[in-house]
Write a sequence for this structure.
């Protein structure tokens, strides 16, 4: 008497799992998936003896292998006489419909899981309540407005800095020109008289016409008895450059004025004070413009951040009105998840059973010539005969 056995996929544990999944699916109304027949490879055993040149050489097990579900045969991968290994793929059904069903089941499961998450954690979901959505949108808009304001002011500040730096370079050039003086950043904010006072420089004394051509301050730069002026060496202990000052005194032929009280330029000379003040005026204006832009930026940014704070308080207030998730909605959502999970399991099993594999190593024996790719295969109909020989 022949015995029908299930090869490969189904064991007692899997049957128990499948029965539980089917129960979940039917309970939740997913009857279509529950009615899917399991596509399991079926084999029929037929023990016998193999003879070689009239002599028995081995005891053989011969099996007929069939699909457990009907479908169109897509591929027949073995022929009579082929030697196959255990687990080798022998034949495949057209699995396009099965894969489509699996994709649909997975999509349904993902949607069900998302709905369950919303029901269980309403504050974490994107559409918790219309009030929360509206409050969050207001906060996002306030944040964007703040960023736009900062970006606009940053551009204006960069322009103000460029104008200030250009004016500062011209201001410092004048002090380099007459004194060889390098200005620190904080000194660029001081007007000429204040800056000179801080550095301990009296222009009236340094550029005194009476020092021409041989004397400078308390020093005499000439060889005694000869009267030839000698160029002084820069004294590093002073902020000004002695050699530069001496050069102006001895090689500039016109009049040099240093008075800040009566700003005027002599017809045949120069006024150091006038040049310093002319350079200071645009620098002073650029500093004032820069400070005004910084102040306006701080004011507008503070206003925008206050709006953000108000929007955030409103969002927290609205969220505070939501306490616990709705128990009934959560129960329904979890039931839908369970049903969708059952459908995925069934669809995966159906896809897996679109192919049959060798239950053991052996040789393909003669089988029906009616088995052709593209033809319809009925569940349980023998597709391949496999013979196992053991010495």
């Amino acid at each position: 008497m022949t015995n029908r056995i299930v090869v490969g996929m189904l064991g007692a544990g899997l049957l128990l799992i499948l029965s539980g999944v089917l129960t979940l699916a039917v309970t939740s109304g997913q009857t279509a998936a529950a009615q899917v027949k399991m596509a399991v490879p079926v084999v029929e055993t037929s023990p016998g003896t193999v003879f070689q040149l009239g002599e028995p050489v081995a005891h053989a097990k011969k099996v007929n292998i069939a699909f457990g579900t009907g479908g169109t045969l897509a591929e027949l991968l073995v022929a009579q006489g082929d030697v196959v290994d255990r687990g080798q793929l022998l034949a495949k059904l057209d699995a396009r419909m099965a894969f489509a069903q699996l994709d649909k089941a997975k999509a349904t499961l993902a949607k069900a899981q998302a709905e369950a998450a919303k029901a269980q954690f309403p504050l974490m979901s994107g559409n918790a309540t219309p009030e929360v959505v509206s409050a969050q949108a207001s906060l996002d808009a306030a944040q964007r407005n703040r960023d736009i304001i900062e970006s606009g002011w940053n551009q204006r500040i960069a322009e103000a800095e460029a104008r200030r730096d250009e004016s500062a370079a011209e201001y410092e050039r004048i002090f380099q020109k007459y004194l060889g003086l390098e200005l620190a950043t904080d000194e660029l904010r001081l007007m000429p008289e204040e800056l000179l006072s801080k550095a301990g420089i009296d222009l009236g004394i340094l550029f005194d016409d009476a020092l021409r051509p041989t004397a400078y301050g308390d020093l005499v730069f000439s060889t005694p008895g000869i009267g030839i002026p000698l160029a002084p060496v820069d004294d590093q202990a002073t902020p000004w450059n002695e050699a530069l000052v001496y050069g102006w005194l001895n090689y500039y032929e016109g009049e040099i004025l240093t008075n800040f009280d009566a700003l005027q330029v002599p017809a045949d000379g120069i006024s150091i004070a006038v040049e310093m003040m002319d350079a200071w005026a645009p620098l002073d204006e650029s500093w004032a413009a820069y400070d005004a832009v910084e102040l306006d930026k701080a004011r507008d940014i503070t206003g925008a951040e206050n709006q953000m704070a108000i929007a955030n308080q409103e969002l927290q207030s609205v969220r505070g009105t939501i306490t616990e998730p709705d128990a009934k909605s959560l129960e329904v959502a979890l039931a839908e998840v369970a049903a969708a999970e059952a459908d995925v399991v069934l669809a995966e099993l159906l896809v897996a059973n679109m192919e049959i594999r060798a239950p053991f190593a052996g040789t393909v024996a003669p089988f029906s010539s009616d088995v052709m790719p593209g033809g319809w295969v009925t569940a349980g109909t023998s597709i391949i005969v496999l013979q196992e020989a053991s010495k």
About this structure: The first strand starts at residue 4 and ends at 6.
